[in-house]
Amino acid sequence: MPELPEVSYFKKYVDSTALHKKIAKIEFPEKKILQDSPQAISRALKDAEFKSTRRIGKYLVFETDQDKVLVFHFGMTGKFEYSHEAEPPDHSRLIIHFKDNSKLFFVCPRKFGKVYLANGFEDFKKEHKLGTDAMDLKKKEFMELLDGKKGSIKSALMDQHIIAGIGNLYSDEVLFQSKIHPKSSIAKLSEEEKGEIYKNIGKVLERVTKTRMEGSKLPDSYLTRHREEGEDCPSCDGKIKLTKVSGRSTYYCSGCQKEK
DNA sequence: ATTCTTGTTGAATG
DNA sequence: GCATTCAACAAGAA
User: Fold this and answer.
1) What domains can you pick out in chain A, each with its CATH number?
2) Which of residues 5-64 of A touch strand B (CB under 7 A)?
């Protein structure tokens, strides 16, 4: 379930493999993921090169030397594989062939991923009404975004229109590290608590991104390592519990995360 | 076989 | 209208 840190990793992978190569053709083995027609995508990318990529929230935007950009969303199971192999990996849903005979495969077993053609990075961001990227968020802006909001803190953290990049897993982690119950209503949180949440957004995302890049493990003090009902809390003598917040499975510790 | 999982979208609600 | 909540959707694992 790629959230911001995983997409950052995909960006690094693509940047080191698939930039600055002429595109020969594109294959579309699975039309369902396409948000624009294969013809339009092929036309926009034929003989183009990817110049750079930019991440916004959970999306990866490919900028070309032409007018259009190609945008990927990874759904639950999407990823890239770059190789010179003729045989596509299982569940390849879109294949970009470069003129040097290498290929970039968009592999997505559950077909929850999406591919868009857009006029540019800013256009795409606006079209999808995406909020500020979680890595670019300043404390002042975060405080203002929460001002006057109703509802639970977890829903707000996951709302891509408010902050882009945080999903189910890492919203739980941020709130666990902040010792705040996911169902806490935003209105009841103190300035200190909101400040703590802000601090942990940066901390958690940076930490997770680093471990993804290195292929290492998260610290034992992370909820992510103990995300199962009845597990011992790594920070107090409580147990991990499971509940639902806006329809999503939500793990928290009943000992150190008290509801407000 | 059925239930559960996910993020986004758009509909329903207040 | 607005903010907020919720169901639908897709495929696969258990």
Assistant:
1) 4-127 (3.20.190.10), 132-219 (1.10.8.50)
2) 57-59
